[in-house]
Design a protein that fits this description.
By secondary structure, the protein is an alpha+beta fold. About 30% of the residues lie in helices and about 30% in strands. It has a six-stranded antiparallel beta barrel.
């Protein structure tokens, strides 16, 4: 499947990479790497991609949701921002060069973006599990991409 979600024209302000955000992300990643971590009731993983422009590894803490057959679902919500998050473009550029870390394990994964009815079902399950994701969709006019991560 293709990674083809365009940026929107309106949405929430996306956070800048300030010192506080870097520290908070570092703390979340440290917790997710060591144990089955949760933040605000959501399960966390660390997604490591290869930068589309830099070619360097880039790690991001993300909430994840269980998919079918032991897969992991992540939403490129960017908090309801008008633009897709940078990690979405890194995944799109290198969907077969991704790892996730959770509970002390590093797992190579392949990524594909869900579309149509499959995306709708997954999105409904995500919103059921974490209502704040439904609020993100109301803030923006872009369709929030749902990415399935499958053990490689």
């Amino acid at each position: 499947m293709s990674f083809d979600t365009r940026n929107g024209t309106r949405g929430a302000k996306q956070p800048s990479a300030n010192l506080f955000l870097k520290l908070a992300n570092g703390l979340m990643m440290s917790r997710a790497r060591k144990k089955d971590a949760k933040m605000a009731g959501m399960r966390l993983l660390v997604l490591t991609t290869i930068g589309k422009k830099s070619g360097e590894p880039r790690s991001t803490p993300l909430a994840w949701f269980p998919g079918d057959d032991g897969t992991w679902l992540v939403a490129a919500s960017a908090g309801g921002g008008a633009k897709n998050p940078a990690w979405y473009y890194n995944v799109a550029a290198n969907p077969d060069r991704i790892t996730i870390e959770l509970a002390g394990e590093t797992i190579p994964v392949a990524a594909d973006q869900l579309h149509g009815e499959e995306r709708s079902r997954a999105w409904a399950a995500i919103v059921d599990s974490s209502a704040n994701f439904g609020g993100y969709e109301e803030k923006t006019d872009r369709e929030i991409p749902v990415i399935r991560l499958t053990r490689a």
